[in-house]
Structure formats: structure tokens, C-alpha cells
Write a structure and sequence with these properties.
alpha/beta, UDP-N-acetylmuramoyl-L-alanine:D-glutamate ligase, 3-stranded antiparallel sheet, 9 strands, binds pyridoxal-5'-phosphate
């Protein structure tokens, strides 16, 4: 590529700058992409938690996407927090029409602080409408369980089984993130699907409480890197290495009194 790829995040705002579109735009820039953003919701939150969500009307989410695609050639899309079923359906409908080259879906459901970021009745819309549009989905262990309607995987064998089960529900590739297995010294993710087989990707577990926005950052970095890499495995590996660096640098930031952000 002679010019930077254009990456689009369809996600929500986090005023504390650690997660959501703020994290995505930083990860896009740091990974060589030009960043664009369509907002699904505003959140009121800091590093200690989310106090409120103000969702954008679905028709206006659709209008933002349509107006952007009418003018800008988007190379890769990352989908993050969708808030409710109406927004999830509007995003699916718009992407069915625009068919961007690469789509990464981070099925965001609940914040680390325990606040629901996707209403429960929207999970079916994500599973039925958005999974088939995604080239790669990046659930963590609880999110994979929610998508399948089962308990979160307890070990690596179960994680591989659930990643395979998600392929059967219509996803093309699944990166099942193992970071919630906090007793392991390594954070091991499982990548399965078309063109990748079953691959385990491990990274050293970084000892920091500043992990806010980890999932947003990883999926955005993958979307930024995929157009610059030959295949998904290479893009995911590079994004994971980028995230390890951002986690290692996180303690140099003094932002808020809770779970601080990773440092891009
Ligand atoms: N807020 C927004 C807008 C998000 O998109 C996300 C995750 O995707 C979060 C908060 C949750 O971030 P964390 O669980 O890292 O605190």
C-alpha cells in the first residue's frame, strides 16, 4: 500500500479516553491507519466505572455510515459497543449494503466494572446479523459464552471447543481471548477459522491494573494492520505484540484512580 489504509470504528465514546472510539483512534494511528469513527452511543464514564449510556438513534447511526461510505473508501471496519438491538440491526443493514473489505467484530457486552454495554435482547441480533458479516470476531471468554448461551470456558480445551462452536454459528474466524484466565503466566488466545486452522497465540501476562480498553485496542489494531499484512494470522500476531507494549507502558500513565488506560 502506498497510502495509509482507512480504518473505521463503529463504537461508543469513552470520555476517559481509555476505551471505545478514543482508544480505537489512538490504536489506528499507532498502527499506520487513518482513523474514522461512527458513534453508536455516548457513555458517561471514568476509570472507575460507567454511570450512564446515551444511545444514538439507529437511523442516525445508519446515516453516519451511509454518508461516510458515499465519499470515503474504507479499507477496514472495527465494530465495538453497539448498546442496543436497534443499533446492532442498523449497523448490520448498512454493512450488508456497503460490504467493506475487512470487518473485525468485537462483541462488547459488559465493562470490566460490570456495566452492561449491550442490552441482553441485542445479543441475538449480533449473533444472527453481524457474525455472518464479520471476517474475524474477537470475544473474550465470557462474551463467547454469552454468544453461545453457555458458561464461559474454564480451560484451553474448552476454549478451542467454544471457538469452533462459534464458527458453526456463522463466524468466519474467531480469536477467542484467554486473558480472563488470570492464573496463567501467559495470556493465550486461540485463533480458528478459514485460512488459519487452529493457532494458539501467547503473550506474557503484564502485571498492571491499568487494563482499561484492552479489548478495544486489540480489535482496532487488528483492523488497522490487516490491510497492511498478507493474512489474518500475521495481523493478529502484530496487534497482540502492539497490545503487550501498550500494557507494559500503562503504568507510566497517571489517569484516574481506577483501572487506568493502556498507553498507546
Ligand atoms: N466503554 C466503551 C465505550 C467500550 O467500548 C468498552 C469496551 O469495549 C468499555 C467501556 C469497557 O472497557 P473495559 O472493559 O476495558 O473497562
Amino acid at each position: 500500500m502506498t497510502h495509509p489504509p482507512v480504518a473505521l470504528t463503529i463504537a461508543a465514546s469513552d470520555p476517559s479516553g481509555g476505551a471505545g472510539i478514543q482508544a480505537d483512534l489512538k490504536a489506528f494511528s499507532a498502527n499506520g491507519a487513518y482513523g474514522t469513527a461512527v458513534l453508536t452511543a455516548l457513555t458517561a464514564q471514568n476509570t472507575q466505572g460507567v454511570t450512564g449510556i446515551h444511545a444514538v438513534p439507529p437511523a442516525f447511526v445508519r446515516e453516519q455510515i451511509d454518508t461516510l461510505f458515499a465519499d470515503v473508501e474504507v479499507d477496514a471496519v472495527k465494530i465495538g459497543m453497539l448498546a442496543d438491538a436497534g443499533i446492532a440491526a442498523a449497523v448490520a443493514e448498512a454493512l450488508e449494503r456497503h460490504r467493506p473489505r475487512y470487518v473485525v467484530l468485537d462483541p462488547v457486552m459488559v465493562s470490566t466494572s460490570g456495566h452492561r454495554l449491550l442490552e441482553a435482547d441485542a445479543v441475538a441480533v449480533v449473533r444472527e446479523r453481524l457474525l455472518p458479516l464479520a471476517d474475524l470476531i474477537t470475544p473474550n471468554l465470557p462474551e463467547a459464552g454469552d454468544l453461545l448461551g453457555v458458561a464461559a470456558a474454564q480451560d484451553r480445551g474448552e476454549a478451542v471447543e467454544q471457538a469452533r462452536a462459534l464458527l458453526e454459528t456463522g463466524a468466519r474466524r474467531v480469536l477467542l481471548k484467554g486473558g480472563h484466565h488470570t492464573h496463567d503466566a501467559e495470556s493465550v488466545d486461540v485463533l480458528v477459522g478459514e485460512g488459519t486452522g487452529v493457532v494458539e497465540l501467547s503473550a506474557p501476562r503484564v502485571d498492571t491494573r491499568n487494563t482499561h480498553g484492552t479489548g478495544c485496542t486489540l480489535s482496532a489494531a487488528i483492523a488497522a494492520l490487516r490491510p497492511q499484512c498478507d493474512d489474518w494470522h500475521t495481523a493478529v500476531r502484530a496487534a497482540k505484540d502492539y497490545l503487550t507494549g501498550a500494557l507494559r507502558a500503562a503504568d507510566t500513565l497517571r489517569v484516574g484512580r481506577g483501572n487506568g488506560p493502556v498507553h498507546h
